Amino acid sequence: xxxxxxxxxxxxxxxxxxxxxxxxxxxxxxxxxxxxxxxxxxxxxxxxxxxxxxxxxxxxxxxxxxxxxxxxxxxxxxxxxxxxxxxxxxxxxxxxxxxxxxxxxxxxxxxxxxxxxxxxxxxxxxxxxxxxxxxxxxxxxxxxxxxxxxxxxxxxxxxxxxxxxxxxxxxxxxxxxxxxxxxxxxxxxxxxxxxxxxxxxxxxxx
Length: 206
Hints:
five-stranded antiparallel β-sheet, alpha+beta, 10 helices, 16% strand, globular, CATH 2.40.50.140
């Protein structure tokens, strides 16, 4: 079982939810929750060293191992509690953890279903299940220090999408910029390259 990895970030962030970490010549694909990825993007460029506490997940229903990385052992502990909730597997949990562990733990302890429903993929029923399963178990994480908010990365992900459209998909720069601008006008709430790619694609279908 893998619980910790230290290696070199091999890929730029073509996907917002994973990185490839090279450890002794082996590349590990590791899923990264959004709140962790923001810090990694800010501090770890491609080719730099990175240490991750890893949650290793493999079941009969999911025979392919799923590795989820964190920069704090407490964040990893919380994640493993979070996936103990019925109907929340590792992949769904990675998508849901869009804000800090402290904030989510506070919402659970306060029985704040409204706040939990702001997490990606969490509706009323799942929010209630989370509270029913974890209330009273996550106060430790609610006491974690507040994490300084990451700076806005709007231009970063827009540039990333433009780069992929031009260098990998063959669009011209002006065409790519126009596609991105139109997508952002249709949905100003886009905050990641994954969402921007989806909206650009949606625009091309109309």
